[in-house]
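chain below, 518 aa
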Amino acid sequence: MRFIKYAFDNGWIGPTGKVALGLFAGIGLVLWSERFRSKGYVAFSYSLKAVGIGTLYLSLWGAFQVYHLLPGWVAFAAMIVVTASTIILALTQDAEILAAFALIGGFSTPILLSTGQNHEIVLFSYVSLLDLAILAMVAVKPWRRLLVGSFIGTATLYIGWFSDYYTKDQRPITVFFVMVFAVIFATIPLLTPLTKSRWHPGFSVTLTLLPLFNAAALFLALLAMYGTERVTLTWYALGLAAAYLVLSSQFRRRAGSDPDVVRTINLLHIAIAIAFITIAIPLKLNAHWITIGWLVESAVLLFVAVRTRTDFLRYFAVATLALGIIRLLIYDNFSVQTLVFNARFATYLVAIAILAGIVAAGDRFAKEGERPFLQLAGVVLNLLALYALTLEASDYFGRQLANLYQVAPRDRYGELQQQIEFARNFSYSAIWLAYGAGLMTFGFWKRSAFVRWQALVLIAFTIGKVFLFDVSALQQGYRIVSFMALGAVLMAISYVYHRDWLKLSPPSQQNSTHRASA
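prediction:
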């Protein structure tokens, strides 16, 4: 070794000799490692192989990048030979670690031989073949972790190329290769055995997270290329949703596969399809139509979940419904010029109708554990209805105030403004009280204590608002009359409950009540 170092230092061994020594040393280490493997020193043997394989890659890199002894295509072909030989060693020796060495070397090859020029077709063709080779290995060997490494390597090379060389003129070719990569990783469950003996029990990154990352990476790549071309992105999203639905149906037909694994993959791909549909809605639609689209989607998902008895879809339906309601309450901005007959009230009616359908169908299809969620849906329904009606009254009087500012005499503007604001506050109370009365009637009709309690809370809150806030603007005589009317109403309600005229009590209690009154 000292002699070789001395020869290098004094220039006795030129570039060709240095590269040749590196290649011979790498091959020699790989061959020498077999001697230790045959004697049972498997770990040490693989360590020697790693050093030898790394020496081969570095020698070829030096021959091309440092000494310029080889043209690029020769160095590239030689590195492919090294990668292929390592794969063959891994398969023949049943060694996953050697396959990992091949994966690292294979994805390092384009980086080691980079010339700073754009060779998109050559680069991505090579990466596609490497991904297919790794997929073929996993089809015959239970080395699922290689697929994660292959995905990371592919994504790294793509991002590096895209950030340096991509232009819009290259978009058709780039889209083609992005689709090729996505198809390779999407077909993993179709081309690999889905049995518990091949996949560890419990959570699996390859079967769960990898399909999700693959779908997300595909759409992000398309989004980066198409930008603001929303129509095109919408069609891509819908097409991907259809593709993942087809894939989910294909998984069911896997003969000899574990049913639990197949069901997990099937539901996961349905979830990805639903996610693409949810993405397509805001891409294609605008303003409140996005909200309506999400609300309708939630109703369809819930209908399909009930018909197919797929609990998994119920969660997506609830999430989509919540997304639509949150957008309606926080994000949507309406310009309303008419009372009731406007886009905002119509959108609220869609949400209310879907919630009403959930509550109505819940008695037949909901499980015992889902009863609290049905009650929550009923509460949200009533709150949305109250809020929608209150918004209509607020906008109506708001328009009157705006007109008043333009036409009212200056000396009477304050008085007229106070009258409109007083009428607006009383209109809120009237709406809430009327809704509470209707809700109470509905609760009597359906014999639902939960609905009646909602009505009582609303009526009590409205009465408190009236007599603590609204009536403060009235003269003392009107206040006395208002309090007397309130007392009469409360006494009438109490008498109705006591006589049980609405037959809310069980039959035995009803008979005892009638005997007592007789």
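Residues 3-8, 509-518 have pLDDT under 50 and may be disordered. Residues 371-407 form the longest helix (37 residues).
thats it, cya
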